[in-house]
Amino acid sequence: MSITTKEKAVKQIIAVFREYGYEGTSLSLLSKATGLGRSSLYHHFPKGKEDMAAAALEAVLVSFDTMVFTPLRQKKQTPFQRLNTCAKGLSLFYANGERSCLINIFSVGAAGKLFQVPLEESTLAMINMFSNLAKEAGIPGKIARHRAEELVISIQGALVLSRTLHSKSLFNRLVKELPGRFLEVD
Amino acid sequence: MSITTKEKAVKQIIAVFREYGYEGTSLSLLSKATGLGRSSLYHHFPKGKEDMAAAALEAVLVSFDTMVFTPLRQKKQTPFQRLNTCAKGLSLFYANGERSCLINIFSVGAAGKLFQVPLEESTLAMINMFSNLAKEAGIPGKIARHRAEELVISIQGALVLSRTLHSKSLFNRLVKELPGRFLEVD
DNA sequence: GTCTATATAGGGATAGAC
DNA sequence: GTCTATCCCTATATAGAC
């Protein structure tokens, strides 16, 4: 299997874990989604489901960094401009709130213990990225961090409500209001 | 089994579902937690796991109504006073953020489809309760609803972060700041 | 690298004794 | 109302042919 074929497989795997959760995902579902037999999956992911979940989480975090964090690092742009691009990245990454966040999905049950460290680290990374941007925009450190924490809380919460209400409107509004509100001085 | 004994069993069942999710919860776990054999569980919950999850969700929603909504209905108190008691109820109900919200936990995979209607209804009920309180406090309808939506988003998000960061601090801060911020005029 | 076949365990669920 | 015993199914995982 070529590297790009594997990347495609991982994309399908991510979609399954997002929808069914770690425990709700079976090798049969993964086999169907990837088009590979169960045994073929073990060839690529020796530890089976655990390895696939790890690969899914890693790929998701890389993708998140590219789509959401990279804009925040464009030092030639103003913080507001960066936040605007970042917000667009968020909409794309979460498909306007229709996709669940693996950090939330994997934080429950057996997966929560398996991936405890990367889940905690990636949550902190999100907070730090936004906090640093706020500081660059001249917001005092303590307030910057406070705001970053609230933003990450809002993103996770909006994704939960998108799922229960079957509506993208709250997530879309959050993203729309994000750039203006995050950097406002009060 | 007496009614209070069954209530105790349901409490244990709730704890298991909260920790392991719907799919991650097995009859063995439920048997161990309740102290009842698998077959005894079927005597009380004929449809097995699905019935137990339904009972857990129903009990949780009743308990939430008692601890969180009831304070909001005390018309003799000011909205601020009610919100203060409500906030204390939230802390108790979620054990300072250490307990997950079943609405989030059950919104994934098979349970998400099984309980789609009650999950959506209870999320809307939360929004409506807070929205009505804001209106009573003189906040215009549209803004009131907007704020209520953001509050429910914050609660769900803070619970997610409490789980991934293994820290109660963000949830506790949210609850602490809640009464003052929810009704503030800007 | 993918397949078929299979091993083994655990899942949910039921029947019937007590 | 609780138990033991049992059934069937699906789950994960492995061995080995191609």
Structural class of chain A: mainly alpha
Count helical runs of chain A: 10
Largest interface, chains and sizes: A-B, 37 and 37 residues
How far from one another are the termini of chain A? 55 Å
Q: Topology as H/E string of chain A?
A: HHHHHHHHHH
Helix content of chain A: over 70%
Q: What does the overall shape of chain A look like?
A: elongated
Strand content of chain A: under 5%
Low-confidence stretches of chain A: none
Radius of gyration of chain A: 18 Å
How many strand units of chain A? 0
- Provide the residue-averaged pLDDT of chain A: 97
- The oligomeric state of the chains shown is homodimer
Largest sheet of chain A: none
Task: Provide an overview of this structure.
The structure is a homodimer of 186-residue chains. With 186 residues, the first copy, chain A, is mainly alpha-helical. The first copy, chain A, is built from ten helices and no strands. Chain A is elongated. Chain A starts with a helix and ends with a helix. The A-B interface holds A 19-24, 100, 103-105, 107-110, 112, 116, 119-120, 123-124, 149-150, 152-158, 160-161, 163-166, 170, 174 and B 19-24, 100, 103-105, 107-110, 112, 116, 119-120, 123-124, 149-150, 152-158, 160-161, 163-166, 170, 174. The structure holds a DNA duplex (18 and 18 nucleotides).
